[in-house]
Design goal:
By secondary structure, the chain is an all-alpha fold. It has 15 helices and no strands. The radius of gyration is 31 Å and the shape is flat.
Amino acid sequence: MSAAASTRLTDAELKAQEKAARKAEKERQKCIAADEAAERRRSARAGFANVSNPRRSTLMTVLCAIFAVYCLFPFVYLVINATKTQADFTSTFGLGFGKSFALWDNIVTVFTYQGGIFGRWLVNTLLYVVVGAGGATLLAIMGGYALAKFRFPGRKAVFAVIIGSISVPGIALAVPQFLLFAKLGLTNTPWAMIIPSLISPFGLYLMWIFSEQAVPTELLEAARVDGASEFRTFWTISLPLLAPGIVTTALFTIVATWNNYFLPLIMLKDADWYPLTIGLNQWKDQASTAGGQAIQNLVITGSLITIIPLVIAFLCLQKYWQSGLAAGAVKE
């Protein structure tokens, strides 16, 4: 009799506890809803979007739209004016299409004008980028990794030299480089473009900092304990972890070499070794020379063709860039 009564009391207590738990949960949900509502109001006043209520700030949207127009305006100008003939280019509004659509004719003329010299300039630019920028990226990867993961005398001095090199603008070194290469007899040759492009102090510094954080020292020690050589450890373990940093360094060096203007201007005299930047500038100045022919439509079309490889490079490499954006953001 007493055991049955005790069981009934226990059941009643359990039901009371369940009821109290449900009531507490409802109160908790009310508190959460109130906090979320307060956060939405605060975010709305501050002009930012809330994760639970993804509103958009009108001011930020307008500013981003203005910035996007500012960035895309030169590209739109190139695309529109590349479709014009020379007569339409000089007689129509800059952001309006001409009387005839001559994009394909302009492209064909660009690659056939002056015996197809534009194709030679394009090949020269690709050579300088592949050998120069590629070599600069490789040297920056190996140098930055070594400085980050090995301790040796003079390491701080090397760091000071790299920082000092970054602070010196490249244009300040152009004249000393020209005098040096002139004494070596390398001016007006591809080496005058390739050798200076192999040095990238900023790329070395970037890979140094990235290697310090992206490659755990414990992982390298485990590989050494397993008997892996330093060369194998670098190529099989460290290199995949450095992919985002490698892509960033490669893009910086590629763009710097592709758009290099002042160095080839003083180093090269033979038009057969010109990169695209100097060649297109020569076409632009052609109209101001005695008896020269104005070919602004070809300059615009050539400029449009010139930026296409860079756009392709950014689109192809951005996935490797994005893969490292959140690295280390979540602690597991």
